[in-house]
Amino acid sequence: xxxxxxxxxxxxxxxxxxxxxxxxxxxxxxxxxxxxxxxxxxxxxxxxxxxxxxxxxxxxxxxxxxxxxxxxxxxxxxxxxxxxxxxxxxxxxxxxxxxxxxxxxxxxxxxxxxxxxxxxxxxxxxxxxxxxxxxxxxxxxxxxxxxxxxxxxxxxxxxxxxxxxxxxxxxxxxxxxxxxxxxxxxxxxxxxxxxxxxxxxxxxxxxxxxxxxxxxxxxxxxxxxxxxxxxxxxxxxxxxxxxxxxxxxxxxxxxx
Length: 256
Prior knowledge:
Layout: E1 3-5, H1 11-17, E2 45-50, E3 52-62, E4 72-82, E5 95-97, E6 100-101, E7 104-107, E8 110-114, E9 130-135, E10 144-149, E11 155-158, E12 164-165, E13 171-176, E14 185-192, E15 195-201, E16 207-210, H2 212-215, E17 220-236, E18 239-255
Parallel strand pairs: 3-18, 12-18
Antiparallel strand pairs: 1-2, 3-4, 4-8, 5-6, 5-9, 7-8, 9-10, 11-13, 13-16, 14-15, 14-17, 17-18
């Protein structure tokens, strides 16, 4: 998978696993019709060539159509893909995250590693502690280990599910849990229909303004994803590996 970006989590993945393993008290799962993004999930961009990727994700979401306290979705996930420039996943042996084996599946000759395949519970800390990956290696993928320090938890405060944002004004995205000394990067992804706005910032203040010029062509139901992430890189046998730890907060709102 020799690309300068990480396309590790597709819409299919969200549709399949979004409501599995969620930490919430209700026994009736809310319908996914209002929560499925019409695009790929957040994709951090890195310079140079990326051959392999392993990623730990913490996902949070409030389902607006379900009453409290049953509307809180929260989950951990481990995902890995190893492959060539065609994007087809290949076998890399056994993959573990903090000692837990990430299940391996094969579909249409493509191999993926996903903790939800076997409903594996990942007790990952999101407080600056490391996430440790180990790959035994197979085929063209050498054995390697990589550790990624987790970002710290945050809360998306604006917009909210009740926000109706005017497309003629800038949209101020704000979140709590920003620290001036933290080595975090933040990615902002706004999706309205087939239009997507993406920006990456190292802003430590917990805010980002999406300019009106970007919103002017948008109207209707909007999906905002704020991604706080850290990453580490490692080169083994001329292969470039990237490990990512990211927290994704998502909200549905409207632009008019």
